[in-house]
Amino acid sequence: MAVFSAYSQDEILDALKKATPHADVYTDADSLAKHKNDPNGIGDADGDLLAYVEVGDTDDVKGVLSVARRFHIPVIPQTTATSTVSGSDAEAGAIMLSTIRMNKILDISREDSVAVVQPGVINQTLNDEANKVGMFYAPDPGSRPISAIGGNASTNAGGMSTVKYGATRDSVLGLKVVLADGRELKLGGRTFKQAFGYDLTHLFVGSEGTLGIITEITVKLFPIPLGHAVMGLAFFDNMTKLSEAVTEVRASGVYPAMLEALDANTVAALDKYEGTHYADNSGAMLILRLDVGGDEALKVTEKVLNDHGAQHIHVTSDDAEMKAIEKLRQDMLPAVFAGHNHVMEDMAVPMSKLAPMMDYVSEVADQLHVQIFTAGHAGDGNVHPSIVWPKEQTEVPENVIKALQLMFRKALALGGTISGEHAVGMLKNQWVNEELGDDVDMVQHQIKSLLDPMGILNPKRKIN
């Protein structure tokens, strides 16, 4: 999308600054390069942003969009730039609209069990503040310490507790959204039920900034459960047995808050990173957490795991030990990615197909001679195979691309999806037709055309 040549760049930037009186507008080369953010090599690496704008309020958002409409300029929404699918990378001539400064927690209500936040509030910050009044915010993506609620909502981020509490969509009660034409919509609210009209709130959750700019989010909070949580490690011969055990735990009447799987390669990488020796025990490790249910839930869980071949189970309610176990999961990615180029994938399959999917990932690694570290949120069928290759090899190897294609098609064949929680971005939008079909794709384009007829909001993302 090209800027109208009838206007000079100085004229456009002058209009932008006048339209955003509370924003910080950056146009210098260093700032534009810093926020270009193209880790996956998919964005327009040869072009430069027109401007990087940190908006201060909703009026600034409306100002950016008014300038974008007037001059036909694409707008790339961004908060903390943690996308793994080129969801908010730069495009030549675009305005990058950052809501990082809109970072206020507007309300936390223990009585209503809700919080109202601006999009730049960090996920961990919200949870910490909710804890102070005996509540917690459930969605906990791996990027929780650095990712913002606005980005989480835009991508429908999941996390380790999705198995029990759902993804971000399940915690969003209401939104304020600015459309491309400048209208501000107030959707949903503070009630847990609302039957009037179409459910536009959850249309915008997961829309990746392609339909509107989220300026406020009302989310559900949960009371911190009574009693004491239990965490544990269980070791298995392989990921197949682990997956079968997890599927049975899910059907047993126990409601675990975390069921995380790590294969042998991942455990070995963690051992090297942490100085531990977990790989000596087995070929796969399960991290589990029960936050309610007491001794009976723990007894049932241990029996199911043992019946499905667990070699060793260690559980604890000691706070220090539980923090150490949580740290293992948090350190997984830096342990795996250290010294490598990498791509981390995000398929999800029905629980009954989790074991076949895990088996297939191993087959692909052997068949194509690629190094795959497989982990994931096993409790909800979400599989994260990470493929690594030498740092000095800057181009993505052909066998890595082939491996991704095979795993994507296998996930679809098993009735799953190729994007469980990491969104679509630019990396996966070419797969939209294959997963959703032509008719659904057409309806999505019609929705996009209705809400963003000029196509200025986050182009090339979400839909093909």
CATH architecture of the largest domain: 2-Layer Sandwich
**Helix segment tally:** 16
Provide the low-confidence segments as ranges. Answer: 40-45
CATH class of the largest domain: Alpha Beta
Task: Give the overall shape.
Answer: globular
How many beta strands in the DSSP annotation? Answer: 19
Q: How many whole angstroms does the radius of gyration measure?
A: 23 Å
Q: What is the arithmetic mean of pLDDT?
A: 92
Reported by name, the CATH topology of the largest domain is Uridine Diphospho-n-acetylenolpyruvylglucosamine Reductase, domain 3
Q: In percent terms, what proportion of residues is strand?
A: 15-25%
Please indicate the count of domains: 4
Q: N-to-C terminal Cα separation, in Å?
A: 16 Å
**Helix percent band:** 25-40%
Largest sheet: 8 strands, antiparallel
Structural class, please?
Answer: alpha+beta
Protein name: FAD-binding protein
Pfam families: FAD-oxidase_C, FAD_binding_4
Family: Belongs to the FAD-binding oxidoreductase/transferase type 4 family.
GO molecular function, one term: FAD binding
Question: If you had to describe this structure to a student in words, what would you say it looks like?
Answer:
This protein has 464 residues and is of the alpha+beta class. It has 4 domains: 9-98, Uridine Diphospho-n-acetylenolpyruvylglucosamine Reductase, domain 2; 106-223, Uridine Diphospho-n-acetylenolpyruvylglucosamine Reductase, domain 3; 226-325, Alpha-Beta Plaits; 339-451, Alpha-Beta Plaits, CATH 3.30.70. The chain is built from 16 helices and 19 strands. It has helices at 9-19, 29-34, 58-71, 123-131, 149-155, 162-165, 201-204, 239-250, 264-274, 294-307, 319-330, 332-337, 354-368, 398-413, 432-436, 438-451; strands at residues 24-26, 51-54, 75-78, 95-98, 105-109, 114-117, 135-136, 172-178, 184-188, 213-220, 222-223, 230-236, 258-263, 284-290, 312-316, 340-344, 347-348, 371-377, 382-390.
